[in-house]
């Protein structure tokens, strides 16, 4: 019995030692991890180090060639911090690095608040659920459901979506903002590539509206800010470009930005979210006057731009006054 116990302790200590060694072969911070080239040998070596640890946790990493990220349009963007895997139960998941040492704790705290538990089941909560977490020393991995595509490209760039398809996505995106804003959270990076979608509806292929609509999910809260509910609205403000709360703030901001951000004025980050969603659809026109007016107001000056809730209310009123068949036509892509 004593020999058996000694053997079990030895195995446990050996596993802990292996985990310790593996940790020291991994990037020391999120910046280094993110900067690894998307298909570089160094990046593959990093994830190979994690293979057995993740397998022990019930997740088998997909081969790189079938990682759920390809050159085909509409696929989930390739992200050095993420890797597709198969859960023990058989479903596909995305494993994403969220915390390394002192970085990313605000990100995981926000996800725990809105992407887990009963609140994650609310019908108006479009935040991609956080299934669970895995820890390796000072690293925390988030486990998310694997969603097939992103909204980027849904506006006629490649997918044969109708105006009705696009407006349905836009309404879900606004509903996602309304929910997190009610939780005192501004996303600050609400562009199309941070909205996942189950599939592209492409109603124009069959010239028929499907009774089943794909769900849109809001992802990636690295830039997000959370305000105390005790703070008055006038104090829920930012200055300057959004900053990733998971990384060192030494990288220039390269996303499009409205004038209140580029001019370094104090601004309302909730209205920034509205601008970012509106900017994603600024290259199209639906040829429906009231809808196009709403899209224009979303990217107007902050004094004119309305909240996500008011924007959604206006859009819902217009859309619900029309039949689904009346929206079954392609959008027009604008040229500069």
Overview of this protein structure:
With 336 residues, the protein is α+β, with helices and mostly antiparallel strands. It has 2 domains: 24-145, Phosphorylase Kinase, domain 1; 149-333, Transferase(Phosphotransferase), domain 1 (Orthogonal Bundle). The chain is built from 10 helices and 14 strands. Strand 2 and strand 3 form a beta hairpin.
| CATH class call of the largest domain | Mainly Alpha
| Poorly predicted regions | 4-14, 65-76
Number of strands: 14
Helix coverage percent: 25-40%
Order of helices and strands: HHHEEEHEEEHEEHEEEHEHEHHE
Report the radius of gyration as a whole number of Å: 22 Å
The CATH architecture term of the largest domain is Orthogonal Bundle
* Shape category: globular
Task: Tell me the CATH superfamily of the largest domain.
Answer: Transferase(Phosphotransferase) domain 1
Helix segment count? 10
- Helix/strand-derived category reads alpha+beta
Structure keywords:
single chain; 336 residues; alpha+beta; Phosphorylase Kinase, domain 1; Transferase(Phosphotransferase), domain 1; 2 domains; five-stranded antiparallel beta sheet; three-stranded antiparallel beta sheet; 10 helices; 35% helix; 15% strand; Kinase-like_dom_sf; Prot_kinase_dom; Protein kinase domain-containing protein
């Amino acid at each position: 019995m004593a020999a058996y116990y000694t053997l079990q302790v030895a195995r446990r200590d050996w596993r802990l030692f292996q985990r310790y060694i593996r940790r020291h072969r991994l990037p020391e911070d999120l910046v280094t991890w993110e900067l690894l080239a998307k298909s570089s040998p160094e990046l593959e070596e990093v994830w190979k180090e994690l293979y057995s640890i993740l397998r022990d946790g019930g997740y088998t990493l997909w081969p790189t060639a079938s990682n759920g990220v390809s050159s085909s349009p509409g696929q989930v963007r390739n992200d050095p911090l993420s890797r597709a895997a198969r859960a023990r139960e058989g479903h596909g998941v995305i494993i994403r690095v969220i915390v390394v040492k002192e970085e990313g704790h605000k990100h995981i705290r926000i996800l725990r608040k809105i992407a887990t538990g009963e609140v994650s089941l609310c019908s108006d909560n479009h935040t991609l659920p956080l299934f669970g977490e895995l820890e390796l020393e000072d690293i925390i991995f988030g486990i998310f459901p694997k969603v097939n595509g992103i909204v980027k490209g849904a506006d006629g760039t490649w997918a044969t979506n109708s105006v009705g398809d696009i407006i349905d996505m836009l309404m879900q995106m606004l509903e996602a903002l309304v929910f997190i804003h009610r939780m005192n959270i501004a996303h600050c990076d609400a562009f199309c590539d941070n909205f996942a979608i189950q599939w592209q509806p492409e109603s124009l292929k069959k010239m028929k509206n499907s009774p089943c609509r794909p769900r849109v999910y809001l992802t990636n809260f690295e830039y997000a800010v959370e305000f105390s509910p005790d703070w008055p609205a006038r104090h829920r403000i930012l200055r300057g470009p959004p900053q990733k709360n998971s990384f060192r703030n030494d990288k220039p901001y390269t996303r499009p930005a409205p004038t209140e951000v580029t001019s370094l004025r104090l601004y309302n980050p909730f209205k920034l979210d509205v601008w970012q969603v509106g900017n994603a659809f600024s290259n199209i026109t639906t040829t429906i006057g009231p809808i196009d007016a709403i899209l224009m107001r979303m990217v107007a000056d902050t004094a004119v731009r309305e909240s996500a809730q008011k924007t959604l209310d206006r859009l819902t009123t217009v859309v619900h006054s029309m039949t689904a068949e009346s929206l079954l036509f392609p959008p027009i892509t604008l040229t500069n």
